[in-house]
Design brief:
Radius of gyration: 24 Å
CATH class of the largest domain: Alpha Beta
CATH architecture of the largest domain: 3-Layer(aba) Sandwich
Structural class: alpha/beta
Shape: globular
Number of strands: 14
Number of domains: 2
Mean pLDDT: 89
């Protein structure tokens, strides 16, 4: 399937700083795609290129198979980390204004806005000024402004910042619904646990370069260290573990390094034969946060 977004050898410099250095990656259609990297890595520069705020010095960006041009911003929804609402404007008039900028007629804009205000149970906010709203409430309005024109590509930069757990789950559910309706989503955040929960594919940018990309599950498997945690009751005979590399041992669990699945099955059978009461037996896969730190540190050395 043709990707919704494709970057080919994209580079961008600001004076003497190379912000993006020959970056290439594809965003699969209908996916939630994580754009990751430490501060100053080049993520924002890439987003600005994709949204046509700036132009790449080299390389090409394709959206839905066509080279990026001035018509594409109307099919993109971008929610920046630095929120861009006008504090003195009322919610309704601001959303109408932003919808018209994306090409919606006044009637279509009003219909789309009513739909989202009703969905979020905030129809009575229409005449409230933005400055009268809490940070979390403003976040909801910013989200509506980003999605109300039904973009084919949605870019969300730290979308849960300032939200309480209830509203975080509300926005997460809507992100899933939007993806299920066919919109592709780029999700940029520093919160690796959110990436693991939400994203199917990722790209990791560091020092302006692509240092890691792929499916989240595949990446975690590639970085695994063959560690297995075995929880038990009643103890384990000492001689059962003599031939194994035991990383950690407690009264009710051990963590062992085993070379492959065959080795893990052999140990499990050996423990059961020795009469050990096994409660759980799991492979320990690295978190994305651990992988993130490892790759960034390796790239910086």
């Amino acid at each position: 399937m043709e990707p919704v977004l494709s970057l080919k050898n994209v580079s961008k410099s600001y004076e003497n700083h190379l912000a993006v250095n020959d970056v290439s990656f594809d965003v699969p259609k209908g996916s939630i795609f994580g754009l990751l990297g430490p501060n100053g890595a080049g993520k924002t520069s890439l987003i600005r290129i994709v949204t046509t705020i700036t132009k790449a010095d080299k390389g090409t960006v394709f959206l839905n198979g066509k080279a990026l041009d001035h018509s594409h911003p109307s099919t993109i929804g971008y929610m920046p980390e630095e929120r861009g609402l006008y504090k003195k404007m009322k919610v309704g008039e601001q959303l109408i204004y932003l919808a018209r900028l994306k090409g919606l007629s006044k009637n279509d804009a009003k219909e789309a806005i009513d739909h989202w205000l009703e969905k979020f149970e905030i129809k009575d906010w229409w005449n409230k000024k933005i400055e009268e709203l809490s940070k979390g409430m403003q976040q909801k309005i910013q989200f509506i402004a980003t999605v109300m024109h039904k973009p084919s590509l949605l870019i969300l930069d730290e979308p849960f910042s300032g939200l309480d757990p209830i509203n975080t789950n509300l926005i997460k559910n809507e992100i899933d619904n939007i993806r299920d309706s066919g919109t592709s989503i780029i999700f940029s955040t520093h919160r690796m646990e959110q990436v693991e929960e939400i994203c199917e594919h990722i790209v990791l940018i560091n020092n302006g370069q692509n240092v890691l990309q792929g499916k989240v599950d595949d990446i975690k498997k590639d970085f695994k260290e063959h560690l297995f945690k075995i929880e038990y009751q009643g103890g384990i005979p000492v001689n059962v573990l003599e031939e194994y590399d035991i990383i950690e041992r407690n009264d009710d669990y051990i963590i062992a390094r085993l070379e492959d699945a065959k080795g893990s099955n052999y140990l499990l059978n050996k423990l059961i034969s020795a009469g050990t009461h096994i409660q759980s037996y799991n492979e320990i896969l690295p978190t994305l946060n651990e992988i993130f730190i490892k790759r960034v540190e390796a790239n910086n050395n």
